[in-house]
C-alpha cells in the first residue's frame, strides 16, 4: 500500500492537490496556516467590507506566484506573509489550483461611477501627459484580467485595490513584471487611486460565473 501510494503521488500529483486543497481552505494545515475561507469566504468571493480580495476564478499561476512572493518577501503583508511561509510548495499549488476552478461570484450591487469620471478615464484611456497608459491595456477590457501576470481587477473590493496601489507606491509590493506598477502607481494622487479603485470595483467580473 505504501508503494502504491508513492506511485500515485509520482504519477498523478493532481490527486494529492485535489485531496488537500479543500481541507486547507476549510481548516488550514495545522502548522501556522489558518483556513483560507476565514478571510476569503467559503466561495472564494472575498469580503469587500474588510478589503479581502476575491480568489475564485483567478489564474492558478497568478495565485501561486502571489503566495510564493509573500513567502519570499517581495510582496509584503503582515497577515499573508507568515501564512504563505507556513505553506509548503505543494500546498501553495493545491490552493491556487482549487481557487482557480471555483465559479466567480457576482460582485455586490452598488452605484457605478460615471463614465467620464477620473476613475473611468484612468482605466480606459490613461493619462498620457504623465505617461500613464490605460489600466485596460494590461488588465483587459473592463479589467477582466489577462493571463497570469495581469490579474482581474473587475469586481475586486475597492479597499483592496486601493491598498495594492498604495503598496506599489510605497515599495511594499515589488513583484510586478518589469516594475511596471511601481512606476505607474507613483504618478497617481490619492484621489486618482481612490477613483480608479472604485471604478474597477463596480465592474462585473467575467469567468465561470454561476
From TrEMBL:
Signal peptide positions (record): 1-18
Gene3D superfamilies, per database record: Cytochrome c-like domain
Domain Cytochrome c: start-end pairs: 23-103, 114-204
Keywords for this protein: Heme, Iron, Metal-binding, Signal
Source superkingdom: Bacteria
Family matches, as InterPro entries: Cyt_c-like_dom (IPR009056), Cyt_c-like_dom_sf (IPR036909), Cytochrome_c4-like (IPR024167), Cytochrome_c_Oxidase_Subunit (IPR050597)
SUPFAM superfamilies hit by this protein: Cytochrome c (SSF46626)
Record flagged with keyword Metal-binding: yes
A Pfam family of this chain: Cytochrom_C
Record has Iron as a keyword: yes
PANTHER family for this protein: BLL4483 PROTEIN (PTHR33751:SF11), CBB3-TYPE CYTOCHROME C OXIDASE SUBUNIT FIXP (PTHR33751)
Name of the protein in its database record: C-type cytochrome
Source species: Fulvimonas yonginensis
Lineage summary: Bacteria, Pseudomonadati, Pseudomonadota, Gammaproteobacteria, Lysobacterales
Amino acid at each position: 500500500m505504501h508503494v502504491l501510494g508513492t506511485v500515485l503521488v509520482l504519477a498523478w500529483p493532481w490527486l494529492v492537490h485535489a485531496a488537500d486543497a479543500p481541507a486547507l481552505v476549510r481548516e488550514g494545515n495545522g502548522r501556522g496556516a489558518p483556513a483560507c475561507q476565514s478571510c476569503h469566504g467559503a466561495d472564494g468571493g472575498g469580503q469587500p467590507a474588510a478589503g479581502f480580495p476575491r480568489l475564485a476564478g483567478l489564474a492558478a499561476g497568478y495565485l501561486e506566484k502571489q503566495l510564493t512572493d509573500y513567502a519570499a518577501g517581495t510582496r509584503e503583508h503582515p497577515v499573508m506573509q507568515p501564512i504563505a511561509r507556513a505553506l509548503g510548495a505543494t500546498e501553495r499549488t493545491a490552493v491556487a489550483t482549487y481557487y482557480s476552478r471555483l465559479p466567480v461570484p457576482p460582485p455586490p450591487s452598488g452605484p457605478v461611477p460615471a463614465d467620464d469620471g477620473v476613475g473611468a478615464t484612468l482605466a480606459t484611456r490613461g493619462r498620457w501627459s504623465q505617461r500613464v497608459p490605460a489600466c485596460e491595456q494590461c488588465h483587459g477590457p473592463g479589467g477582466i484580467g489577462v493571463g497570469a501576470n495581469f490579474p482581474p481587477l473587475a469586481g475586486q473590493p475597492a479597499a483592496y485595490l486601493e491598498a495594492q496601489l498604495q503598496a506599489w507606491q510605497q515599495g511594499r509590493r515589488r513583484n510586478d513584471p518589469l516594475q511596471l506598477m511601481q512606476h505607474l502607481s507613483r504618478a497617481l494622487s490619492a484621489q486618482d487611486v481612490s477613483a480608479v479603485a472604485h471604478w474597477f470595483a463596480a465592474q462585473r467580473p467575467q469567468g465561470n460565473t454561476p
